[in-house]
């Protein structure tokens, strides 16, 4: 035999020389769940190891992540039912606890990349990402107005990267215009470009208590059966001024990550979502899988598919692991 591929696998040293993909701490964004008040820490039942934290404890969490090298965070608010209404007015109220906490976080840690989510669902009494009319229709253009106002107060509070996650048409362009008109031309947009109508978001909706009160999200989030449509969304987001494109979820959509990476020169982010985290945790807790190993293999697969950046609940554990190597 002339060709023996096993020669390149013969030792840890040779394997590391020929290794094509690595996951580094600089690739990771850590999602955090913010609670109103102080000294509050509530674990998410379906996401063991992930906590909803009040601002004081969330600041401590960021500090401990910084010590591990994680420097990018996506903060989601847990909004009390009493604050929710049809047009998500708390989402653009600069005095609401979320926006005030964002400012505190950014003032405390100016060096971090602070990302925020732009969508109505955490603040909406309907639990939908857009405004719902009396017939149950999700209104696109009326929703854009709210998204623009929400992005603006978040930018004013100190957000570095705005993450529109609602899948309304034209949102990137609208948000870009609003931000620029108010002097926020340096605030980035990480568009949830190909966001699928997925059942893998279940644990996240538990964490935020944000599940739709009626119907589903299929008229705005993408059909899991489609891939060409992801390219249409990517082209539009690029034209509308997105700085990053995102695919979400990650694991059942590795082909979409690959195809966006091949078609766009923008950085590609993959959102390794709550249900994907929950699966590994559950199997690990039962002793059915080696959690540490499958976590690393999972993150590697997402990078190998073509993602530059991974939003993941595993970020802290992965950073810990990288530090111990
Ligand atoms: C809100 C939003 C969702 C997620 C991120 N932003 C839920 C949804 O669209 O229903 C899901 C994240 C996760 O599952 O980890 N628009």
Protein topology:
Elements: H1 12-18, E1 28-35, E2 41-44, E3 47-54, H2 55-68, E4 72-77, H3 97-108, E5 113-118, E6 131-132, E7 138-139, H4 140-157, E8 161-164, H5 171-181, E9 188-195, H6 202-208, H7 228-240, E10 244-248, H8 254-263, E11 268-272, H9 274-285, H10 291-305, E12 309-312, H11 315-324
Parallel strand pairs: 1-3, 1-4, 1-12, 4-5, 5-8, 8-9, 9-10, 10-11, 11-12
Antiparallel strand pairs: 2-3, 6-7
Helix pairs in contact: 3-4, 4-5, 9-10
The structure holds ligand PBG.
Question: What this model shows, in words?
Answer:
With 325 residues, the protein is α/β, with parallel strands linked by helices. The chain has a single domain, classed as Aldolase class I (TIM Barrel, Alpha-Beta Barrel), CATH 3.20.20. It contains 11 helices and 12 strands. It has helices spanning 12-18, 55-68, 97-108, 140-157, 171-181, 202-208, 228-240, 254-263, 274-285, 291-305, 315-324, and strands at 28-35, 41-44, 47-54, 72-77, 113-118, 131-132, 138-139, 161-164, 188-195, 244-248, 268-272, 309-312. The strands form 2 sheets. Strands 1-4-5-8-9-10-11-12 form an 8-stranded parallel beta barrel, surrounded by 8 helices. Helix 8 (254-263) links the parallel strand 10 (244-248) and strand 11 (268-272). Helix 4 crosses helix 5 (171-181). It starts with 11 loop residues before the first helix and ends with a helix. The mean pLDDT is 97. The protein binds ligand PBG. Ligand PBG is lined by residues 117, 119, 121, 129, 165-166, 201, 204-205, 273-274.
